[in-house]
Design a protein that fits this description.
It is built from eight helices and four strands; from the N terminus they run E-H-E-H-E-E-H-H-H-H-H-H. By secondary structure, it is an alpha+beta fold. The chain is 52% helix and 8% strand.
């Protein structure tokens, strides 16, 4: 790949998911650290991402935003890593399913519940709390991998969300979730990405 990858992020943001994905791919990238309320809302950055949020990935002159889109795209940029099953396979469709489930219904549900106002089940993408939690538990129960017999971007995305929501108390730390997350969070790329972002947090607090 000839295009330079530039990763815009903040160490205490959803960009930690993209950081892990970048480390999994082994692709070279430059990181630009932005700050909430200042550089993240600057005219220069808003020209790249009018939402004024992170992460954003610049590949050459093309901007890619939305964490799920970035992670799926990065998987395609490093096909030798096997982070997505082959194009057109049912397993690839299943990976899309779980990445977008976490990025869509799961995140929307947790956010709405935190603020005390769930949408009516017929209107909400997450339906009822019971259906969503049943789906989530069934997806990971007794499984090392969400799809097939190897680690994929779906595992990275789901483990990232589950571990974060359990850590901040938004999801109950059930054994079924903890068992699933534990093995993935020990991956060298996950540990390395966490150390990079944690060091940035420590430096900013000094």
């Amino acid at each position: 790949m000839s295009d330079t990858l530039t990763f815009h992020t903040h160490p205490q943001s959803r960009g930690r998911i993209t950081r892990w994905m970048l480390e999994e791919t082994g692709l070279r990238y430059d990181a630009v650290i932005l700050e909430y309320g200042t550089s993240m809302k600057s005219a220069q950055y808003l020209a790249l991402n009018p939402m004024g949020k992170v992460p954003a990935l610049l590949q050459g002159s093309t901007v890619i935003t939305e964490n799920a889109a970035i992670c799926l795209h990065l998987a395609d940029l490093a096909p030798w890593k096997g982070l997505l099953p082959p194009v057109g396979s049912a397993e690839r469709g299943a990976c899309y399913r779980w990445v977008l489930f976490a990025a869509g219904p799961l995140e929307a549900f947790v956010t709405d519940r935190r603020h005390g106002s769930l949408a009516p089940p017929m209107e909400a993408g997450y339906g009822t709390a019971e259906d969503l939690m049943h789906t989530l538990e069934t997806a990971v129960a007794g499984k090392r991998y969400l799809v097939g017999d190897s680690f994929t971007v779906a595992d990275l995305y789901m483990a990232s969300f589950l571990s974060y929501y359990m850590r901040v108390g938004e999801l109950e730390a059930k054994p079924v979730f903890m068992d699933y997350c534990a093995v993935h969070l020990q991956r060298p790329a996950s540990v390395r990405a966490g150390e990079l972002d944690d060091a940035l947090v420590t430096a900013s607090a000094a």
